[in-house]
Design brief:
Chain lengths: 345, 345
């Protein structure tokens, strides 16, 4: 591969590592003043997502400023529903908002799976190519998408929600419509991830951010089968599945064709390791709120997490995206603590 | 006791029952047209909460209209912070909002634990007395409060939130302040629950609605010790603890001095029963979204849940409060299905 730093790829494969690799979900974003400078020169969040030059710049910023062991593409999971015909706005403070919502078979005209992925999402692939050119093999680049269930939540609800009760309602009232929409999202997502691979990403992560609002049985009916379809299609690069809150389904997730399982901060590392065994890498899971604390506490909490690993197959991350008002200096303390930690042999 | 219907009390004690008892969290509220009629004649939610005549009326409505096996006091967990000096508004659509927030020791002037509980919350006790008079022993009355951790979340955040990151931040940045505030809330909550017992409630439930946002260790530091203080003080009536999302702490919750453990819809009934054993009653946990479905599916999903019980120590409920746009006829289908279900001996 010839990366200057390939420690995350070696960890994914279970190879010998000298220290644990570390990156942060949402590292490319609002925490960095350098990001805010780029963002404020533009008309809005979407211009940043859709302009390869700027999206590539903020993708690389954390590699240079925070010295993380991987870059992650700056983009949004909602580019997929938009590509299918359901456009969104990103409202300051309240978050994503869709004018149309999918509530009936008729609404599926706004959920088109027969699209030319290069035509609709070519700007993402261009960003990836530009990142790889400028990153120049310093660290690997992670691409991503939302899981079909999570994308479904937004397409049905039309916005963020605490309970996504409209989305969950549809599973009981119109299961055929739910499966049709999930199938369409899956089809586009597979094309999208393959496009990212072709454009040059080195790893992929699928975010099932709303896994935790489904019970075990519903998760196995409406999310896992679609994750399986995706996982079985991704062969060229390592795949991470991050199913936030899916406490009851870790065993099933570990049976999918993925390399790494992401954990949120409420999941117990040792319990999950016992379920998963040594055949997968585990990623996570410091509470993002730890980064609000004094340096000494950040060091202690980080070391406590590292002590709990008892295996080399771990990628260090937070258990959720870094919160926007986190001081980048605290992030550096976290990263430094990880990098200086000596793995017990 | 001489209740016309005491099946819920017998279930709590593990006595022999002829069928499972059933009630719904938030049964007294927006789903009933009869409630909306009372509510629309008043200036707002708080007038309804604070006027015993009206609060008592809507408390009893579901007993008469839905034929549930228990009444639950119509009130709000936020009357406790208000009694301590932090008043709130209930905004249409966005929910609770506090003008002041607790972020420093100075702010604790708005979190006074040395209050005359009868002076501040006498209206709740008056409601309880009026309910008991008008309910006239048809079914038991359940009183309630929020858990200290959940009340803390609102007092620090100042509103609802998806992540309550300000509240969680305080646990790392100012743990002494956090424990002081939690202690104060606990002291007032114990007085408040004892006041409810004195006024005549037959059972109590403590809602830890935001349990799920803490990891296992933090939950055992910042929530469980305060729940224990409360549980150890409540001796006169049966106590239910509903710690939503506390998947990793069920074993610890089962060690507290409570009679019943409430489960959300993501918790697996058999797994929890295996952990808890037969020494506690379990309450829950149908997904509230099932009540959006056709009657046949409601019957099937309800029976599937009942089949999973394999024990008599179960109180049937939803895994969360009934959603406001639920059709009361669907609630009746759910209740009828439970009442007609034959317990296998």
């Amino acid at each position: 591969m010839n990366f200057q730093n390939d420690i995350i790829l070696r960890t994914v494969k279970g190879e010998k590592i000298e220290r644990y690799p570390v990156w942060l979900m949402r590292q490319a974003g609002r925490i960095l003043p350098e990001y805010r400078k780029v963002r404020s020169s533009l008309s809005g969040f979407k211009e940043l997502v859709e302009t390869p030059e700027f999206a590539a710049e903020v993708t690389i910023q954390p590699v240079e400023i925070l010295e993380v062991d991987a870059a992650i593409l700056f983009s949004d999971i909602l580019v997929v529903p938009e590509a299918m015909g359901l456009s969104y706005q990103m409202l300051e403070k309240t978050g994503p908002w869709f004018e149309k919502k999918i509530r009936s078979f008729d609404d599926l005209t706004f959920a088109n799976a027969n699209i030319d992925i290069n035509d609709r999402l070519g700007y993402v692939f261009d960003t990836i190519k530009l990142v790889q050119k400028n990153l120049n093999k310093r660290v690997p680049l992670i691409g991503f998408s939302g899981a079909p269930w999570t994308i479904f939540c937004y397409m049905v609800e039309g916005s963020g929600s605490k309970t996504f009760s409209e989305s969950r309602k549809l599973l009981y009232t119109q299961p055929d419509l739910a499966h049709e929409l999930l199938s369409r999202i899956t089809k586009v997502t597979i094309q999208y991830l393959k496009g990212q691979i072709k454009a040059g990403v080195d790893m992929l992560q699928v975010f099932d951010s709303w896994a935790g609002i489904l019970g075990k049985e519903q998760y196995s009916t409406f999310s896992l089968p679609y994750l399986k379809l995706i996982a079985d299609e991704i062969e060229e690069v390592p795949l991470t599945l991050f199913c936030k809150g899916a406490y009851s389904s870790i065993e099933q997730i570990a049976q999918l064709n993925c390399n790494t399982i992401g954990l949120d901060w409420n999941m117990d590392i040792q319990e999950v390791r016992n379920i998963v065994g040594e055949s997968r890498t585990i990623q996570g899971n410091l509470d993002p709120c730890v980064l609000y604390a004094e340096n000494k506490m950040i060091e202690n909490e980080t070391k406590k997490m590292l002590d709990s690993f008892k295996s080399r197959r771990h990628i260090v991350n937070l258990g959720h995206g870094v919160y926007p008002d986190t001081n980048p200096e605290k992030v550096k303390t976290f990263i430094k603590t990880v990098k200086e930690y000596e793995i017990k042999s």
